Amino acid sequence: MVRVLAMVVSIAAVADFCYRAYIASDCFEASFDASGREAGPRSAIDTDECRAVITSRDVRMRLDAAALVVAMMTLIGASVMLSHARSSTKRMVLGVEAAMLVVAAAYCLLWMLSFR
After folding, report:
1. 95, exposed or middle or buried, with CB in 10 Å at 0-12, 13-18, 19+?
2. Which of 58, 69, 83, 88 gets the highest tally of CB atoms within 10 A of its CB?
3. Number of folded domains that form the chain
4. pTM of the prediction?
5. Helix (H) or strand (E) holding 28
6. What pLDDT tens digit does each residue of the chain (116 aa) get?
7. Which of 20, 25, 3, 1 has the alpha carbon at shortest distance from 71?
8. Interatomic CA distance for residues 111 and 36, integer angstroms
9. Neighbour tally for 91: CB within 10 Å
10. Is the dihedral of CA 71, 74, 78, 81 positive or negative?
11. Torsion over CA: 62, 64, 68, 70 (sign)
Protein backbone atom coordinates (compact mmCIF):
# COMPACT_ATOMS: atom_id res chain seq x y z
CA MET A 1 0.00 0.00 0.00
CA VAL A 2 2.85 2.39 0.83
CA ARG A 3 4.50 1.73 -2.51
CA VAL A 4 1.27 2.42 -4.40
CA LEU A 5 0.80 5.69 -2.50
CA ALA A 6 4.41 6.70 -3.23
CA MET A 7 3.90 5.95 -6.93
CA VAL A 8 0.67 7.98 -7.04
CA VAL A 9 2.39 10.95 -5.36
CA SER A 10 5.31 10.63 -7.81
CA ILE A 11 3.05 10.60 -10.85
CA ALA A 12 1.03 13.54 -9.53
CA ALA A 13 4.19 15.56 -8.78
CA VAL A 14 5.64 14.93 -12.24
CA ALA A 15 2.34 15.76 -13.94
CA ASP A 16 1.95 19.02 -11.98
CA PHE A 17 5.60 19.91 -12.66
CA CYS A 18 5.08 19.46 -16.41
CA TYR A 19 1.77 21.35 -16.37
CA ARG A 20 3.31 24.32 -14.53
CA ALA A 21 6.22 24.41 -16.98
CA TYR A 22 3.81 24.36 -19.92
CA ILE A 23 1.62 27.15 -18.49
CA ALA A 24 4.65 29.32 -17.75
CA SER A 25 5.99 28.84 -21.28
CA ASP A 26 3.27 31.22 -22.51
CA CYS A 27 5.01 33.99 -20.56
CA PHE A 28 8.24 33.76 -22.54
CA GLU A 29 8.75 35.02 -26.06
CA ALA A 30 11.39 33.83 -28.45
CA SER A 31 13.79 36.06 -30.33
CA PHE A 32 14.44 35.13 -33.94
CA ASP A 33 17.37 35.86 -36.21
CA ALA A 34 17.17 36.99 -39.85
CA SER A 35 16.71 33.44 -41.18
CA GLY A 36 13.71 32.79 -38.91
CA ARG A 37 15.47 30.47 -36.47
CA GLU A 38 15.18 30.96 -32.74
CA ALA A 39 18.24 32.84 -31.51
CA GLY A 40 19.36 32.93 -27.92
CA PRO A 41 17.37 32.37 -24.76
CA ARG A 42 13.72 33.30 -24.48
CA SER A 43 12.91 36.52 -22.68
CA ALA A 44 10.11 36.93 -20.15
CA ILE A 45 7.08 38.98 -21.11
CA ASP A 46 6.93 41.87 -18.66
CA THR A 47 3.32 41.96 -17.43
CA ASP A 48 1.85 41.63 -13.95
CA GLU A 49 0.04 38.44 -14.94
CA CYS A 50 3.21 36.79 -16.26
CA ARG A 51 5.19 37.85 -13.20
CA ALA A 52 2.56 36.17 -11.00
CA VAL A 53 2.56 33.02 -13.16
CA ILE A 54 6.36 32.74 -13.13
CA THR A 55 6.57 33.32 -9.37
CA SER A 56 3.88 30.76 -8.57
CA ARG A 57 5.46 28.35 -11.04
CA ASP A 58 8.80 28.50 -9.23
CA VAL A 59 7.19 27.88 -5.85
CA ARG A 60 5.00 25.02 -7.04
CA MET A 61 7.76 23.36 -9.05
CA ARG A 62 10.04 23.34 -5.99
CA LEU A 63 7.25 21.80 -3.93
CA ASP A 64 6.71 19.20 -6.65
CA ALA A 65 10.41 18.37 -6.65
CA ALA A 66 10.43 18.00 -2.85
CA ALA A 67 7.32 15.78 -2.96
CA LEU A 68 8.95 13.65 -5.64
CA VAL A 69 12.13 13.19 -3.58
CA VAL A 70 10.15 12.14 -0.50
CA ALA A 71 7.95 9.81 -2.56
CA MET A 72 10.97 8.17 -4.20
CA MET A 73 12.68 7.70 -0.84
CA THR A 74 9.50 6.13 0.54
CA LEU A 75 9.24 3.87 -2.49
CA ILE A 76 12.88 2.78 -2.19
CA GLY A 77 12.53 2.16 1.53
CA ALA A 78 9.37 0.10 1.13
CA SER A 79 10.91 -1.90 -1.70
CA VAL A 80 14.10 -2.61 0.26
CA MET A 81 12.14 -3.77 3.29
CA LEU A 82 10.18 -6.21 1.12
CA SER A 83 13.23 -7.47 -0.78
CA HIS A 84 15.15 -10.63 -0.04
CA ALA A 85 18.49 -8.86 0.32
CA ARG A 86 20.84 -9.57 3.21
CA SER A 87 20.20 -7.59 6.37
CA SER A 88 23.53 -5.75 6.06
CA THR A 89 22.56 -4.55 2.57
CA LYS A 90 19.16 -3.44 3.85
CA ARG A 91 20.79 -1.51 6.70
CA MET A 92 23.20 0.21 4.33
CA VAL A 93 20.47 1.22 1.85
CA LEU A 94 18.15 2.44 4.61
CA GLY A 95 21.03 4.41 6.18
CA VAL A 96 21.75 6.14 2.88
CA GLU A 97 18.03 6.76 2.46
CA ALA A 98 17.82 8.37 5.91
CA ALA A 99 20.75 10.63 5.03
CA MET A 100 19.08 11.63 1.78
CA LEU A 101 15.85 12.45 3.61
CA VAL A 102 17.78 14.67 6.03
CA VAL A 103 19.40 16.49 3.10
CA ALA A 104 16.02 16.88 1.34
CA ALA A 105 14.40 18.16 4.55
CA ALA A 106 17.22 20.67 5.09
CA TYR A 107 16.86 21.85 1.50
CA CYS A 108 13.10 22.32 1.91
CA LEU A 109 13.50 24.17 5.22
CA LEU A 110 16.17 26.49 3.85
CA TRP A 111 14.02 27.15 0.79
CA MET A 112 10.97 27.98 2.94
CA LEU A 113 13.04 30.24 5.20
CA SER A 114 14.34 32.15 2.19
CA PHE A 115 10.87 33.68 1.69
CA ARG A 116 10.93 35.42 5.08
Report:
1. exposed
2. 69
3. 1
4. 0.63
5. strand 28-29
6. 778 888 888 899 899 888 888 887 777 776 666 666 666 666 667 778 877 887 888 888 888 888 888 888 888 877 777 777 788 877 887 788 788 778 877 877 787 777 66
7. 3
8. 40
9. 12
10. positive
11. positive
